[in-house]
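dumping the sequnces here before i forget
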Amino acid sequence: MRGLFRWSGKWWPGVIPLIVLWGFAAWTSTVPLENDLASRSSAALKGAVLDKTSIAVDGRDVSLRADAFSETGRRDAVAAVDAVAGVRLVNDQTRLVPEAKPFVWSAERDVVRVTLGGNAPLPALKGRLVEATRAAMPGVEVSDQMGLARGAPARFEDAALLLIGQIGKLKDGKFTLSDGDVTLSGMARELGGRESIAAALAKLPDGFKVASNEVKAPPYIFQAYKDPVAVTVTLSGNVPDENIHAVVVGSSSRKFFNEKVVDNLKNSVGAPANFVNAVVPALGALSRLSTGTLVVSDRDIKISGDALYDAAAAQIRTGLAKDVPQGWQVKAEITVKPAAAPVDPTVCQQLFSDLLGKAKIRFETGRADLDRDSTGLLDRLVEIAFRCPTANVDIIGHTDAEGDSAANQVLSQKRAQAVADYLVRAGLPADRFAPIGYGSTQPLASNDTADGRAQNRRIEFVVR
Amino acid sequence: MAYFVAFHWAWLAGAFGIGLAMGWIAVVHRAPGVSGWLTWLLAAVAAALVATAVACWVPGRAGYWLELLLILFVPYLVGCAIGSWLRALVVMRSMRQRSAG
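..and the predicted 3d for all of it:
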């Protein structure tokens, strides 16, 4: 041992090559060592939920810079790097992701893309939201402008995914989640889109509510065009459902007795309230025109065309606004068709007979009130009456044989009177018309069949 | 430490080799030895360096290089001791043969 101590005094010259060796070792091993530690530190953080992770190694000291989403996650990340073999010190530059108050997330749709904005609570969830948007909108560019922040409300993901599922129903617009409040704005792609979105939002998770829903639908359009050349009435646009479809077409067939009804209507949800109560009177007004167009856009009714005589134009202008339900706007641009040339009374008789051969003046059952579906027919009778100003006309009412014959006589008289009153209101002199009631005394057909009875209930115009 | 040995085993082996050679030579070397007070001074410097390394006072690469130097000294000194011991054995045996002859 003593010898070892004595010899050790002479070991110092070996330090010189040792220093040289150390120099080489330091020269060649530093960068590989740093790279090795960096790669193993990254591997250690693989499962950690972090954002903006950056690892810098200086010698054996690791600087860890990262945004963590919880205090535990932050501490675990630092501990994981510290546990990597070979790491001497961890320079902890981690921080918590800032907390957003309120926590806002949005999805915005425009013509070419969907932009996801605001904040997502976790990177993985951010990725899932982008993927869900791509899946919901194939072929549409998805722009991810989401940041990351803490403070998302519970069940944020469910709410955001629900909104993403609805974004395809928008033509353009924006869905925003602000804490538990959902705000919607924009324009639905189709009729009914607004209602469909509102229905889907009923399934929002607990804690979320719709703060405002400003999604608008495209205008609900119904159109009718009366073409005097083709002798057609073309119905196009939307009706709410099959029942109202049938009501509108049925009513049109009765009102437009002379024209063929072309039905191009489509059933769509999203109609304004009282749709049928507005459209049927508007069709009645159109039936009084010789040529005309009816456009119903949401609650705006626009009717334009030529009335058959002055009083009819005035009645349509003022009457339709009163007939439609409250809240509906009527814009009537009615002109008057130039009066047709006067004709002989015999021609007039022929015209009356031809017209009444095509359709009958209808009354409400058992009463002398004119059916509104007959207004178009009555206007045409008025037009003919204007063409033979010298002719006096007997307006003769007939009934079927059902019920008491005296009552039938009174009813037929009243009905003839109602028609005469209509002609007088149209501006014709009252003394030209003589209302007569024959009751059931002059049947055209047998009263034993429903068809025969229908033929017997009639009004006749006889030029004297 | 295990990481160091695994990562730097070749350099450590080199330091051990240098130590072994130095120890072999030192037994018959006629150079002057280190004087007593200098020994104590060197020991104090060595202790200070070890303390510095253990306490991680030197940051970054410099700290790593200090650790590398100190860690290389360990196999060097072990090599010196083994080298000197082996050489002493050889010298003693040859001296015994010479005196017997």
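The interface with chain B takes residues 3-4, 6-15, 17-18, 21-22, 24-26, 29-30, 33, 36, 58-61, 85-86, 88-89 of chain A (CB under 8 Å).
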